[in-house]
Each structure stands twice: as C-alpha cells, then as structure tokens.
Amino acid sequence: MVDGSEAGAGRVDIHAHFFPRLTRAQGAVLGDGGPWLRDDCDGTGWIMAGDREFRPVGESLWDPAVRVSRMDEHRIDVQVVSATPILFGYDAKPPVAEQWSRLVNDLAVEMCSDHPDRLRPLCQVPLQDVDRACAEATRALATGHVGVHIGNHVGGRNLDDPEMVRFLHYCADEAIPVLVHPWDTMAGDRMPRYMLRWLVGMPAETHLGILSLILSGAFERLPRDLRLCFAHGGGNFAAQLGRVDNAWHRRDLVRVDCPDPPSSYVDRFSVDSAVFSDDALRLLVAVMGADRVMLGSDDPFPLGEEQPGRLVETSGHLTDGQKAAVLGQNAARFFDL
C-alpha cells in the first residue's frame, strides 16, 4: 500500500467507477439495449448499449492491475469503487433486476479480489423492489462489499418516496453506508449537446435528492446514524442553501413538512470533494464542515479529477487537519475501513 501516513488514515477515494467484463449476452437480460463491455484489446474500449456505442472508456475501468497502477501514481491508498450508473437496471422487472444486481456485485468482488486492501466495492441493488434490494444489500455486504451505491431516483420516485425511505432506514438499521449518485437526468431532450446532461442535469438531480429528504421531513423519520453520502459535492446544494433557507423562512409552503431550517440538516449526510476548484471546495467545507466531506474523484472518467486528491492536497483554504480528514480519515470512519 502507498504510504499515506501524512493523511492519518491514508488517502481514500470514495467515488470511483468500474465496469465489469460483461458480455453482450449477459447485458441482453436487460433487453436489446442492455449494457456490456467491448474491449478493443488496445487499452481502450466502449461501454455498449446493445448495438449502440454509449461511451468510450479506458482499461482502468475494468482491469484492476491498471487501476491500482494509476492509484500508485496518484498516491491513492484505497478506492471505494462503484458500478457505472448505466448498470443500475432500475427499468427491469424485479426478479430480473435482482439477478442482474447479483451478477454485477459478484463480478465486482471478483475484480477487487487480487487487491483486497486497495479496492473495496460498493454493491448495487434492485431498488425498484425494496424487499429484494434489502436482501441483496445484506447478501453483498457478507461477500465483501463495504456499502451500497444507489441512484437518486427510481423512475418518477425521488428519495422521499416511502419505499426509498424504507430502504434507507434498513441501511441505517444494518449499518450499511450509502453512496447516492445522479443518473437518468431530467429534461434530457432539452440538453442534447455540450455535455449539458452532465454539467446541468447531474448537479440538479443531486440537489433534488438532498432537498427531497430535507423538505419532506424524511430525515425526521430516519435514524441519525444513517451513513449517507452524495456524489459530486452534493451538486448545487451548497451554492443554493442560502436560497433554500430564505424560502423556508418566508414561505409556509416550503416548511409545511420540514420543522427546522434546511441548513440545520447538513449534519445528516456527507458529500464528496469532486468540485474541481479551491473556491468551490472552500464553500463546500464552510457549508458541510470538514468532517462531512470525503475525497471523491469520479475516476476514471474524463469529467473526473485528473490527479485524484490534488485539489484537497494543494488547497489554500484548508488546514492540515482538514486535509487529513477529507483525504482519508472521514472515509475510514464512514466505510469502517
């Protein structure tokens, strides 16, 4: 393992993706557009959706030896890896989604098995059926996963949906950490170019996920020891929290189900550090507190941090103690590493 002693608990990247070597036949269980991996055997490949080329990718996405070599280069001790969101399978019928999640989760454990001290997987679950989702989360944790990775919505149901809250309650009761990632972004037909689905849609989806839990009063019904983290620095949340508080104080429509100001709930969840500028990181830590921010790179995708951990390490606004917390100490506690 890379020497991470300067960070106390080492450097832990909690937001990094993988895509297992799924064949076209395996992906086809989700339908004609099912996801699979085309390895072009030259260090590159494609995530495929049936016949369609969905996204060009590099071999660190599926080859653990290449991934660990990159981690060494960037002085990352541990990556907590989660499946690329196209693999969620939330549109499938529950029995199919259950078997699909089991397959992806078993492949994740297999991928991490050669480097168990460096690569720690998060499982996915068939969230469209909460009973099945709870069962698979428990099964996966017993096989080596350190938490669960979910999307911020299932169809038209946000995180405040009673079934979504029931799943989160189960995770709290079973001490299962949860990472929430945006996916299937809203208004895609209005954002066909310039990567606007990623630049506008994903931050908006994450903001929606957080506010749905706060304003609905869902956090009042969830245990305080729920370990919940939102990707991409919580999306728009930190920048817009003043606006949300202002609305809560001035409009009874906003506070009808939310007994306390929205800013009082920032101790109920964490976020990653994938915000890409020191000014944005300063705001994030000011809003959330340094103990609620964990290193996240979105590796190995092009919109991720090119040198994971460098933003935190070189920040002109964080103390050494805050840097150590964000780089690894918070994640070690959050995931029981």
What topology does this entry show?
Layout: E1 12-18, H1 24-27, E2 35-39, E3 44-49, E4 52-58, H2 64-73, E5 78-83, H3 94-112, E6 119-121, H4 130-143, E7 148-151, H5 162-173, E8 178-181, H6 196-215, H7 218-221, E9 228-230, H8 237-250, H9 252-255, E10 270-272, H10 278-288, E11 293-294, H11 310-313, H12 320-334
Parallel strand pairs: 1-5, 5-6, 7-8, 8-9, 9-10, 10-11
Antiparallel strand pairs: 2-3, 3-4
Descriptive notes:
α5 (162-173) links the parallel β7 and β8 (178-181). The protein has 337 residues and is an alpha/beta fold. The strands form 3 sheets. The chain has a 5-stranded parallel beta sheet. Strands 1-5-6 form a 3-stranded parallel beta sheet. Helices cover 39% and strands 15% of the residues. α3 (94-112) runs parallel beside α4 (130-143) and α4 packs parallel to α5. The protein is globular and about 55 Å long. It has 12 helices and 11 strands. The chain has 2 domains: 5-18 and 62-334, Metal-dependent hydrolases (TIM Barrel); 21-61, no CATH class.
Summarize the structure.
The protein folds into two domains: 287 residues, TIM Barrel (Alpha-Beta Barrel); 41 residues, no CATH class.
List keywords for this structure.
337 residues, alpha/beta, TIM Barrel, 5-stranded parallel β-sheet, 3-stranded parallel β-sheet, 12 helices, 11 strands, 15% strand, globular, disordered N terminus
Relevant CATH superfamily of the largest domain: Metal-dependent hydrolases
- The backbone outline, from C-alpha atoms, is globular
Instruction: Provide mean pLDDT, rounded.
Output: 95
The CATH architecture of the largest domain comes to Alpha-Beta Barrel
Number of strands: 11
Strand order of the largest sheet: 7-8-9-10-11
Residues in helices, as a percent range: 25-40%
Largest sheet: 5 strands, parallel
